[in-house]
From TrEMBL:
Natural source organism: Mycobacterium kansasii
FHA domain sequence ranges: 77-126
GO MF term set: ATP binding; ATP hydrolysis activity; ATPase-coupled transmembrane transporter activity
Keywords of this entry: ATP-binding, Membrane, Nucleotide-binding, Phosphoprotein, Transmembrane, Transmembrane helix, Transport
Protein name per Swiss-Prot or TrEMBL: ABC transporter family protein
Length: 580
């Protein structure tokens, strides 16, 4: 027995999506307490059903009836959205002439026609590729599979499975400062479900959301979208995932219709006509109840209407999986309920919806509730109606307080050992130890570069730390060291050689012939970036400044020689008589 209703069906108080009638079972329809009771009993052995077409891609299996089967009996088969193609795909993400199949000997070659959203073979975007018997072609929301002289088409209608297995996020992995943000979270989301993710502040809700969407992949573990690895096929599957951030990204001076029109022009191929865009925009406005506000400015909308407009931007491309981060944040209680009712209807219409929220007043609208404990540990996954009784709490405020204060209880082990875990999922409890199998691990994040202080002696002088500004102490050790003038790449001075000599004693001593050859290049600098030295005698011209001016730290420097706005003369020019 499979549930297709919005109010659900319940077995022993738990909402379920399907019931295997292997023994007599009681099912409540509509409500766990006041619904209609139905008694089911196993009947006779049914006749064997005809096998459904199955497309296989390595370890990926798409087990659903095909949408269409196209005969390919010519040498060239065109694929696209336009009605003049041999294979017509009614999808606005597909270009008018998207790709073509060409017979190459005994094989078929797939060629992409510079499409807007790309052509994918086994999750990899291609420009041209030879197709084998087990290859799957992804174009828009369609999967295509060659079966002899037929092209079998499967359409992603939203009835997809979604599973997370052993998701683990670790920062600074391998160092002493490593920290676990998410600890081996696993769950399976039924089709057309609304999942709420809740937990105390800092429990890792945003980290989990990033791992589930693929925007910030987990350090280890896997996410499977319709039995396909999301991380490995992210380039193709990202078009089927919608994400609504907490802060609305809307141009408030625009009307709702114009904002949707701009978004449609950015996301759809350039050959989509204005009539096609307007038709899709009107469908989204009707679905979200925004038809009345279509020509109203966004800055004049209520909070709930503005949030629904943000959702409308994502629904333009018909995503099968929709994620929302705090959609009810800052809304009045009435608008909070309105937004949650909208999400409930979106799930009932054929999508899986995942929402991270602090709103606990309307969790009963959700099919599943996932509670995270501090440290990113899974504490509960199941029907929201049973969460409080599972933790022996009267309300969610007490529940969150319990999770924050009780740091000794292993909430994950407690949940996996409970009968509730076996009731809501068919997957075994994950190994509490960190998985080491390469099959379960995805590449970790790029290691962050550490400090390079230990490399300073080997770096050229221009990459080392600059000396402190003249007259400004640089720290506790400033009193023991002579104050040196600032030297930057734009203002190179002869006195900077003393600093280089301190870091690298192998450099030539100031005043020698080798040093003068190194400083000859200073003549080509702009006068503002060159210090005046032509008034000094030849023997002292290239000496360090602290040798020429012994009392530099006790008296104010000469503004004529050190002020950056002064235009000094080029060394070697005639020096006018001093006014003194």
């Amino acid at each position: 027995m499979v549930n297709h209703s919005s109010n659900g069906m319940f077995v022993e108080g738990a909402r379920v999506e399907r019931v295997a009638v292997a023994r007599p079972v009681s099912v409540m329809l509509g409500s766990a307490s006041s619904g209609e009771l139905v008694q089911l009993a196993p009947g006779g052995r049914p006749e064997a059903a005809a096998p459904q077409p199955v497309a296989v891609v390595g370890q990926t299996t798409v087990a659903r009836p095909p949408t269409a089967v196209h005969a390919i009996d010519q040498l060239v088969v065109t694929i696209g959205r336009g009605p003049d193609n041999d294979v017509v795909l009614n999808d606005l993400l597909v270009s008018r002439r998207h790709a073509m199949l060409r017979r190459s000997g005994s094989q078929w070659e797939l060629v992409d026609n510079n499409s807007a959203n790309g052509t994918y073979v086994n999750g990899t975007r291609i420009s041209r590729a030879l197709l084998g018997p087990s290859d799957i072609v992804g174009i828009g929301h369609q999967l295509l599979h060659l079966s002899g002289d037929r092209l079998v088409e499967y359409v992603d209608t939203g009835d997809i499975s979604y599973e997370a297995a052993n998701l683990r996020v670790v920062t600074n992995k391998g160092s002493k400062k490593s920290k676990v943000l998410l600890a081996d979270v696993s769950f399976a989301l039924p089709q057309r479900s609304l999942l709420a993710v809740v937990g105390p502040s800092g429990a890792g809700k945003s980290t989990l959301l990033g791992a589930l969407t693929g925007f910030r992949p987990a350090t280890s573990g896997s996410v499977r979208y319709d039995d396909r690895d999301l991380y490995d096929n992210y380039a193709e599957l990202r078009h089927r995932i919608g994400f609504v951030p907490q802060d609305d990204i809307l141009h408030t001076p625009l009307t709702v219709r114009r904002a949707l029109n701009y978004a449609a022009r950015l996301r759809f191929p350039h050959d989509v006509s204005a009539a096609e865009r307007n038709q899709r925009i009107q469908e989204v406005l009707t679905e979200l109840g925004l038809s009345t506000q279509a020509d109203q400015r966004i800055d004049s909308l209520s909070g709930g209407q503005r949030k629904r407009t943000s959702v409308a931007l994502e629904l333009l491309t018909k995503p099968s999986l929709l994620f929302l981060d705090e959609p009810t944040s800052g809304l009045d209680p009435g608008y909070e309920k309105s937004v949650m009712q909208t999400l409930r209807s979106l799930a009932d219409d054929g999508r899986s919806v995942v929402v991270v929220t602090h709103n606990i007043a309307h969790l009963n609208m959700c099919d599943r509730l996932l509670i995270l404990a501090p440290g990113g540990r899974l504490a509960y996954f199941g029907p929201p109606q049973q969460a409080l009784s599972y933790f022996h709490c009267t309300d969610f405020a007490d529940l969150f307080t319990l999770l924050e204060r009780d740091t000794t209880t292993d909430w994950t082990a407690r949940f996996y050992a409970s009968p509730l875990h076996a009731a809501v999922t068919a997957h075994p409890a994950p190994n509490p130890a960190h998985p080491t199998s390469a099959h379960h691990q995805s590449p970790g994040p790029t290691k962050r570069a550490g400090p390079i202080r230990h490399l300073v002696p080997a770096l050229p002088g221009r990459h080392r730390r600059r000396p402190p500004i003249l007259g400004v102490p640089a720290g506790p050790a400033a009193a023991a060291e002579p104050v040196r003038p600032r030297r930057t790449r734009q203002r190179r001075t002869l006195t900077g050689q003393s600093h280089r000599r301190t870091l690298n004693p192998t450099l030539p001593t100031a005043g020698t012939a080798d040093h003068r050859r190194r400083t000859d290049g200073l003549r080509g600098l702009h006068p503002r970036n060159r210090q005046r030295t032509s008034h000094l005698p030849p023997r002292t011209r290239h000496r360090p400044i602290r040798q020429r001016l012994p009392s530099l730290q006790t008296r104010r420097p000469d503004r004529t020689n050190h002020h950056p706005r002064t235009h000094p003369r080029i060394p070697g020019d005639a020096v006018p008589a001093s006014p003194r």
